[in-house]
Amino acid sequence: MKKRFEAEGAGNFLSAKEEVKNYICARTPLVIIQSPERERVERMLKEIARELSCDIFYYTDAKQLCKLGSGQSSNADSDPLLHIASIFKKTRNSTFAFGDVKRIGEDNIFSRELLNILYLAKETSGTLILITADAVWSRLAQFGMMTSLRYPDIDERIAQLGRFVSAYKGRYPIEWTDEDLRRAATLLRGFSEIQIENILSATLIRNAGLYRSNLHELTKQKSRLYGSVPSIRPVRPDPDLKVAGLDGLKAWLVEKKKVFFASEEALRQRDLHTPKGILLAGVPGCGKSYSAKMIAKEWELPLFRFDLDTVYDKWVGESEKRMREALEFIDNVSPCVVWIDEIEKALSVSDAGNDTGKRVLGLFLFWLQESFSRVFLVATANDISALPPELFRKGRFSEIFFIDLPSRAERREAVEQYVKRSLHIPLDERDTEQLIDLSEGFSYSDIEYAVKEIAQTALTDGQEIVTPSLLVEKFKEIVPISKNNPDMVRRIREWGRERAVAASKTGGSEA
Ligand SMILES: Nc1ncnc2c1ncn2[C@@H]1O[C@H](COP(=O)(O)OP(=O)(O)OP(=O)(O)O)[C@@H](O)[C@H]1O
Ligand SMILES: [Mg+2]
């Protein structure tokens, strides 16, 4: 979970390099560099060797023994630990780096041998640098200092993208502006330097250049990178998806999109964070789930559906573990939109006095408040009264919207949209007005249903049957949700109008 104090930039190349340099100058016997990117650490050590004008001996299984900077390598087929020991014995103040170190997470023969070498390093003012992506046995770790080089931060990614674009500018058409570079750099969070290089090269070759329309291809790579978590599934919204109405929600999203994609620097200068997300409550069939997909499509971000209820398990500790894994996955694949549908169904588990439920909810709320990853959460709910009140506290959702039955203007938009798409006939103003009158109290999905019923008949019986009067007849037949379940709709509307912001500026239907 990325927190405020671990903001991007804390583990970047330059600060890690300064730290390691200081440890070497202080002749610290052990320096552990935790990083999954060996090549980047290697480059860092080369720069340090040059800047301090010192030799750093370096061993990896692939390269064998070499002196960083000089590029000389020699065969160390025999045990590399013997080489390290002999270098420390021969020359005081030697520095030796060991890449790809494995099997040092626990007490074993190898870790113990390393421990002996560290006693020797201490006597001869030697420094041993271990590069590893894994945990280190506590007795070894106690001998020295640890620093971590995480994946490139936003500034490094912008710089890498800049270098890439300059290198290919003359040979390929490159349409990306500085703003696009920043956006690409935001999208490529969580990738190693080599992965970024590979993704950029592949995108460049595939499209014979870098065009604005290629930006969204970068996001597709994200979901492939991390091992999947059962409670989270990627969702690909329909590219033709079009939400009618909800102008208030749409206008709010246009503004928040700018903040969501603002640079780290711009946010830092104003002590701001990206918007966390929204809770959409409201009448069924009016676009709660549909809007979650719309946001991902409009913001060109990957969409993940998070099924909170599948996190719960009867075994002690298992639910918490699954929740932690899911939240870590989300942080890793950010920036993204995460959609939790019908959040009340999963979260109401916690009010059964069930401790596991409470702890899992606690983890989720903590993440919602503390994580500063670029994740935009869209939760939907019908029955808000079933939700735990903690969820509504400040700092959790950016806004709670209420989606009502469509107003006249919204019904007009929906009727015109669906008729155009599925029936392919023109409607005159009189027909349209009649359909708007008849659809008082309809949800959007009631309108869609009526139109698509006719479209299905047209598919089997021919387009000739499609007439405005057939539409009018169909609309008269429909029993809308507001008539089918008036009590539920009244309850949802009472709550929503009182406690949430209207998603539509034109106001809901009077049904
Ligand atoms: N605002 C809208 N514009 C266009 N179509 C819509 C709109 N709202 C809903 N629809 C249509 O109705 C279908 C159902 O909508 P959606 O799944 O978003 O409803 P919901 O509010 O999530 O309802 P529920 O509470 O039943 O889950 C959508 O797939 C879409 O085809
Ligand atoms: Mg829904």
Oligomeric description of these chains? single chain
Count of DSSP-assigned helices: 21
Could you estimate the helical fraction of the residues in percent?
40-55%
- Average pLDDT confidence is 87
Biggest sheet strand order reads 4-3-2-5-6-1-7
Q: What is the strand content?
A: 5-15%
| CATH top-level class of the largest domain | Alpha Beta
Structural class: alpha/beta
Architecture of the largest domain, according to CATH? 3-Layer(aba) Sandwich
As for the number of domains, it is: 4
Uncertain stretches of 5 or more adjacent residues: 1-11
CATH 4th-level superfamily of the largest domain: P-loop containing nucleotide triphosphate hydrolases
Bound ligands, each once: adenosine-5'-triphosphate, magnesium ion
Largest sheet: 7 strands, mixed
Radius of gyration over C-alpha positions, nearest whole angstrom: 30 Å
How many runs of DSSP E, i.e. beta strands?
A: 14
Question: Can you tell me the CATH topology of the largest domain?
Answer: Rossmann fold
The separation of the N and C termini measures 46 Å
- Shape by Cα distribution: elongated
